[in-house]
Amino acid sequence: MSKGRNLFNASMTPIVKSSTRPKWQRIPKRNVFYHKSPMHRGHFVLSFAFNFDREDEVYQFALTFPYSYTRCQGYLKVLESRAEHLEGNFCRELLANSIQKRRADVLTIGSVPKRAAEKRRVVVIIARVHPGESPSSFVCQGLIELLVSSHAIANTLRDNVVFKIIPMLNPDGVFLGNYRSSLMGFDLNRSWHRASPFAHPTLTAVIELLTAIDKSKDYQLDFIVDIHAQSTLLGSFVYGNTYDDVYRYERHIVFPKLFANLADDYQPNNCMYNSDSSKIGSARRFFCANLNDKINTYTFEVSLFGYKLKGSDTIIPYTEDSYKRCGRNLIKAFLEYYQVTGVIPISPTQELKKKRPRRHRSPSSSNRTRPNTTRIQAPIHYKDINIYYESESDADEPTFRYKLSPRKSIFRDHRSSSPPPQTIVVLPEPSLSIIDFNIITKADFENATRKSQKDGKVLNET
């Protein structure tokens, strides 16, 4: 909150809801102030004005959309009870207990054959290392919902890849309302290189799990993605590593490029690849240095506020659904990666869609001018129209109600049959008279005029 570089300088505001208005809403920018305070040693201070319009209401304020430990456990319990359709492709296990004996679960999604000719690919996803970064839980829930669905993408990935997902790695910090630390005050994403069973039980459990997968003869660990939320930058982006091996680095940047083509909120300018020694305790740097060279480790970041549309400076705030969409985009990127690398074969229909040539017009055909045509109304056949006089209309100025005669249907309804409408007047087909003005005389014209007037009087009398 006291950082000079903060999203509050980019029009971000806190959110609020009440007991009768349960939907989170952002406080207007004109009522929010983020400034340096001399009374707080020059640190930045957030203040806002709010009017409590109802006395019996309970109001709640938050930095971003909350995602509690209770909500996570309830979601996993419901997910476990409804995963029968996966037929053994879903498993919820206890990874470790926290210091205060709260659950840190691990989900296994994907088929695990007893004997396979090739190693089964494994993707590990970690979320909520920092308790205050609740958008990471929404991103994680979004990718879980896609993986357990009956979508074709989910079915393909479950048949070829095993996903190990840890939805909440710091349950004590989330329960206590900490922003970045655990129960004992440790930043877990700076403690991977010095994790101990006493102070970091969840970290040691993850290290043991990934080490066992890395040494297994049946699995090949491909990805480790640590999901975080960003308080200073907009959009979604990736932090990666740099390597002395050029080929390994080129292989490392393939996945972020595939994700960039799928996500509208991706900000490539915020991406960073480094080997910073100050981040040696992060998951990205630790597993890169301690596991085999084939593993790609990333930190996936998503903004606490919103993202900019491509080619525009308009900021669109994130919602719970848009955070979940980020998770679904991650899963789609995994599918494209494994198709590009040949792990998952591409179906013939997909190849035809990708290789379908575009039709190019020849220069001669593009220069052709279309003929000048006019739009005319479609002719109306009066035999198909029945005219009814309104019963309450004036006799001098009659109004008409037009009704098209019903079309014949191939389905017959024997239960109800309405009588056909009574026809009062049916207009005949219009006829066309041709007059040759080259041979007509003045006397003939006067005779034709008198005849037409006489015929009109006869029609009015009838």
Automatic annotation (TrEMBL):
<feature type="active site" description="Proton donor/acceptor">
    <location>
        <position position="301"/>
    </location>
</feature>
<feature type="compositionally biased region" description="Basic residues">
    <location>
        <begin position="353"/>
        <end position="362"/>
    </location>
</feature>
<protein>
    <submittedName>
        <fullName>Cytosolic carboxypeptidase 6-like</fullName>
    </submittedName>
</protein>
<dbReference type="InterPro" id="IPR000834">
    <property type="entry name" value="Peptidase_M14"/>
</dbReference>
<feature type="domain" description="Peptidase M14">
    <location>
        <begin position="65"/>
        <end position="338"/>
    </location>
</feature>
<comment type="similarity">
    <text>Belongs to the peptidase M14 family.</text>
</comment>
<dbReference type="Pfam" id="PF00246">
    <property type="entry name" value="Peptidase_M14"/>
</dbReference>
<feature type="compositionally biased region" description="Low complexity">
    <location>
        <begin position="363"/>
        <end position="375"/>
    </location>
</feature>
<dbReference type="InterPro" id="IPR050821">
    <property type="entry name" value="Cytosolic_carboxypeptidase"/>
</dbReference>
<feature type="region of interest" description="Disordered">
    <location>
        <begin position="349"/>
        <end position="375"/>
    </location>
</feature>
